[in-house]
Write a structure and sequence with these properties.
6-stranded antiparallel β-sheet; 2 domains; alpha+beta; Arc Repressor Mutant, subunit A; Beta-Lactamase; 3-stranded antiparallel β-sheet
Amino acid sequence: MVARKSRRTDGAPQGAQAAVRAIRLLKSFTRVQAERTLLELSAAHGLTKTTAHRLLSALESEGLVERNPRTGSYRLGSAAIALGLEALQSHDLRVQVHRLLERLAAETGETATLEVLHEGQVLILDEIAGPHVLSASGHIGTRWPLHATSTGKVLLAIQPAAMSSLRAPLTQYTRSTITDMNALHRELERVRERGYGIVLGELEEGFNAVAVPVRDALGEVAGAVSLGGSSTRLGRRELTRLAERLLQVTASGGADAPGR
């Protein structure tokens, strides 16, 4: 009998399958699914319960996962939280852009975010909240769909390889969400022409945003900076004005931002 090769470890370095499986288990925990049972985890990753339990026990011994004493389900442990905070604080792009976000939020009164591509979505790497209440604001670590966000449109337009993560039909979040691939391609062409992306109630009704690309120390596009808020304050005209400001400030590295 030929042993079945796990598709989840294809391409892993020889002898590293256990480590890869353990890492994939860690990545199973999200804001939406903060706790998962042994059965859920083993089924999701094509593992036997015995193998999944052995891997989880190893992770638990290092504090990377822990058991909920009431339900017995697994969740991320304190060591995983500490590692995440260390990674966040040491991320070069976040360090580079953080003060810029502070100044943009102070200048505009809107929430400024830094978002990067992550596994077919955009992930909030940093965020400075403005004084206005936002219905669609997220938190650091939140993931949003590429096609329904201003940052996602920017990154799709500049890094076309990201399109491979999208599948038709595109998920519809509001009546304004672009769900047709051809329409999305036309929108991305407009983003490339003007240098910024906008959303008008496409992720959540009443929430508009604008984003521009940001570059790393080598000049490569590494993420996108956005400003977002209520459509009652941020209509198309105001978004265009903010886009011009974002392009100006990011091009200068924030040198002309207030207080610099």
